[in-house]
Amino acid sequence: MATTTAVENNGVREIADGVWWVGSNVRTNDLFEGMWQIPHGVALNSYVVKGEKTAIIELVREWAGASTELMKKLHAIGVAPSSIDYIIMNHMEPDHSGFLSTMRELAPKAEIIASARGAALIKAFYGIEGVRVVKTGDTLDLGAGKSFTFVEIPNVHWPDSMVTLETSTHTLFSSDAFGSYGAHKGYLFDDEMPASDREFWEEETLRYYANIVALFSDHVPRAVEKLKGVELKVIAPAHGLLWRGNPGRIVAKFMRFASYKKEAEPEVCVVYGTMYGNTENMAKAIAQGVASEGVKATIVKVPETPMTDVLAHAWRSAGLVLACPTYNYNIFPPMMDFLAHCQHMRYDSKKVVWTGSYGWSEGMKHKTFEEMTAALKWDVVGRHSFNGAPNADDLAKGVEMGKLLAQQVKALPPKQTDAN
Questions:
Q1: Which tens digit of pLDDT belongs to each residue from 17-45?
Q2: CA distance 410 to 160
Q3: pTM of the entire structure?
């Protein structure tokens, strides 16, 4: 584990020569983006770079004391807000920019820098005009050897998104690209991470990607291509770990997650909802069939399992089992909610088993399913409805569908390796 020569005062860390982390770790019951649970919190990473002039990159929002923490950290490194020359907004979503109006009052001479779309959104959200617009290839010299190069990476994950490279330290401030959920656990960097936490950060990064970035997966390789050939010693995102020991790992991880849009891991996610246990029994039979083929099955129940977790498991899995009863002539509403997320986020190219119980009628259930999934390129390898409780033949059919799904899924190559 690498040592650090960082300044540590009020939680401040010098992450490279003349570059400081001045962010905050938020632990709250609030929902990220108003909808995603963050049981392990989230880091709001903000950075200061000092040359002859001073820049702050990304801010925080007024959330669980984050803005107070930011001000304390600026004081700890001797930066009065009034002395800041540049406020660089790689992305203006309010978890990054919520403190912008206040910071502008505290730093009246600071020039705000953003992409063209970022400038338009800053005006729309905060009424701030006169933002300096930059585009790919533009540079900014802070003096004393510190300079920035800007690269636009639209739709990773908003149209305004860009990254900022500090050229002397080869530090990439990547905004939401290469980020994750999860508050820091006493360390900032990947090379300070205990081996026992590796799975934690894999899961938090996957969950963040599945919730926030999945829809824009086609744009991730384009963003990475723009950075091809650039030496990166530190990747400093707006959320999650900073990557110094092996910055290429988080890039490879995002590329792996992006690839799941076309072909995910050879695993199965069983998503089921049940009213009285009948559909649950069928889901268990299908899972038994999957397991009999030596394929991993992750079983999640809706609505009891938070949607943030359901989506992460589903994004990772090449196979989906969707099991739910008919409810008032249609799909069980919690399953319909999951399908709506899949539809909206473009969870494409899955191999699927579709099943469930019905009472007096199946109504519009199957028509709704077809309409909601028509654009997703799903290969439905098995479907079976049953009236009331599943009998022995129904359960045997479930086992066989699980086996068939598993056989097709396990023919796919695994995507996760030690390198990503």
A1: 999 999 999 999 999 999 999 999 999 99
A2: 39
A3: 0.95
